[in-house]
Design a protein that fits this description.
This protein is mostly helical and about 240 residues long. The chain folds into 2 domains: about 80 residues, Arc Repressor Mutant, subunit A (Orthogonal Bundle); about 150 residues, Tetracycline Repressor, domain 2, CATH 1.10.357. Helix content is about 60%, strand content about 0%. Helix 2 crosses helix 5, helix 6 crosses helix 8 and helix 8 packs antiparallel against helix 11. It is flat and about 65 Å long.
Amino acid sequence: MASTQGDDVPRAVRALWGGDGASRRGPKPALTVRSIAAAGVALADAEGLAAASMVGVAQRLGFTTMSLYRYVDSKADLQLAMVEEALGAPPEINRRLGWRNQLTAWAEAEAAALAAHPWALDVRPASPPLGPQTLAWMDLGLQILERTGLEPHRAASALLVVDGYVRQQVALGLQYADGGAGWSDRLRVVLPPDALPALTRALDAGVFDDDPSGFPADEFAFGLDLILDGLERAAAR
């Protein structure tokens, strides 16, 4: 018999939605997908994503690796659950604000969540989101964008643009924090005279000089405003 649609939803995802057999008779399970995910998040926060392997998480919890396979089928499913745990619930946003301010708050909250757990940027899910927390973030973003008057397909596309921007900016912030110090000085060493005139003028204007706080927060706000300006014009059309 052919499998029915949805049979390939990972067991861990079903558990995160509450379908983990909590109503079964018998003793309470020793672990849950959420407790496993929380242990993985703690490991990844402390030592990086590679440390949050099935073996590493099992050792942190004091169980055998095979015990984890009763709850998650693979490392990919473990990482999916970890991202859900790391993101948490979407923010409470003041619905009396205009859609621009609401979407700005949404983007800033997502940036903060990802900056707190930067390894989440390295997780590559096998499919678009299916977990309850990730979909709750998406639902909130779409609710906000509904207020623009954009039709649903365009609203969904717009949310992808904003989400992609947030993730790119967080990744850039990490890059600046790790290797941005002294970049302008290194540019002056390697940049051939008159070869790249616009870049040279930006360098001379101090555009790339070090910022003690890392990647400037005003860069995030400026780029987000550009996107929101475009959305506003698209909605007006």
